[in-house]
Amino acid sequence: MAEDIYDVGMATRRKVLGEAHVDRASQGITEFDATFQRMITEAAWGRTWSSDALTLRERSMITLALLAALGHWEEFQMHLRATRNTGASEKDIAEVLMHVAVYAGVPAANHAIKLAKATLAANSEA
Description:
Layout: H1 2-17, H2 19-27, H3 34-48, H4 56-70, H5 73-86, H6 90-104, H7 106-125
């Protein structure tokens, strides 16, 4: 069963983040972080992201809001790049960041908007 959850998680992770990103991340796994990497693949990707309770678009929007609210900027940008795979539109992202402004604060939303503009522009050039 654990292999199934891992395999489901890895497939979802590849679908959302892209083959190249996951391949690069997987190459960097060492004995030190192998257990952690397996846990996030199973828990985050194999259970949470793979559940049929929400669409990938909805999960993407929720994830962006949480990452922006918490100031996890590297992960925020990674998930912005992933919106080309999840179906979250630029309009969706702008709306999410309005919610971040109201519920988590204008400084967080302002910085997220700055990063989003640059990341989405680079996404459209790729």
